[in-house]
Amino acid sequence: MAQDIPVWIDAQLQPMDKLEVHRRGLKHPAVSVFVVAGGKLLIQQRALEKYHTPGLWANTCCTHPFWDESPADCATRRLAQELGLDGIALEHRGVVEYRAQVGNGMIEHEVVDLFLGQCDTQPALNPDPAEVNAVRWIDPRDLRSEIAAFPGRFTPWLRVYLSEHADLALAGL
Hints:
This protein is of the alpha+beta class and 173 residues long.
């Protein structure tokens, strides 16, 4: 099913088919969320049916906002859709831009609003199997070690976030 997302064309946001945006590597808005509890980060393994980066481990969730949807509303919506998480207060941590090959001839060139949700205890999860193959909670130091040892198991954007923007994404964890 085709989905239009906002993309910058001649410095103006315009709707375009999501697959076309990724095939052409066009710059577009995105949202990434990091949820932490007890010093551990919730990461997800992307569903095996995803059109790019299937089966790779990523941050808690990420997506593209709908037309005229605020980044905060998008982040809240996607946490509920992908993981069944509601009621988590999200703090906007900043905006980053990256460009990366993501396989299958696709390129992500995203301007990303990063959000952090901090919980006292690990919340109950209800992952959507069409989006998420598996989840786990991991200490950020252990995650960095795993990425160093096995970078191909992780999405390019998670590698970028942890190597270049950990101060925003993880608030010093």
